[in-house]
Amino acid sequence: MLPEPYRLHHRADFSRTVRRGQRIGRRDLVVHVLKHGYDGVVDVQGQPDDPAAELVRVGGPRFGLIVSKAVGNAVIRHRVARRLRHMCGQVIPELPAETDIVIRALPGAANASSAELLRQLRGAVRKLGVGPA
Fold first, then answer.
1. CB of 1 within 8 A of CB of 90?
2. Less Cβ around it within 10 Å: N or C end of the chain?
3. Per-residue pLDDT for 52 more than 60?
4. Which residues of 58-72 are buried (b: 16+ CB within 10 A; e: fewer)?
């Protein structure tokens, strides 16, 4: 289970991350990353995006999941979401606290192994410049 401070809950947070953040696609995942500063949203390179937006951050990086019906029926979607939440918990120590990440599962995620999904997630985060080198 992913602890509360590490979750994205509000639609506005999801939308902001997907629309303003950087995106990278992998075989079974699409990862959107948006980095925040103390005075507002910044892009991945650290430049202010909207200095008027005041944000209150508690905890570390926040994760949101999107698992659509294209992935499978409800049982399969929930299984994929549980696996992705577990993987998010494993990468928390590797990410800066001011990062929002939205992970969109593609249909292949239902059949991919957990190790493969974790490898894709770590590779995507590293490629976007917020993970360890």
1. no
2. C
3. no
4. eebbbbbbebeeebb
pLDDT reported for residue 54:
45
How crowded is the C-beta side of 63, counted as CA atoms within 13 Å? 23
Q: Can you tell me the distance from the alpha carbon of 28 to that of 105, in angstroms, rounded to the nearest whole number? A: 6
Q: Torsions phi, psi of 98, nearest 5?
A: -90, 30
Q: 51 pLDDT band (50/70/90 cuts)?
A: very low
In this model, does residue 41 exceed pLDDT 70? no
| Interatomic CA distance for residues 90 and 118, integer angstroms | 9
Which residues on adjacent β-strands are paired with residue 101? 33, 63
Residues 6+ apart with CB under 8 A from 84: 65, 67, 103, 105, 109, 117, 121
Find all residues with CB under 8 Å of 132, minimum gap 6, and list them.
Answer: 94, 126
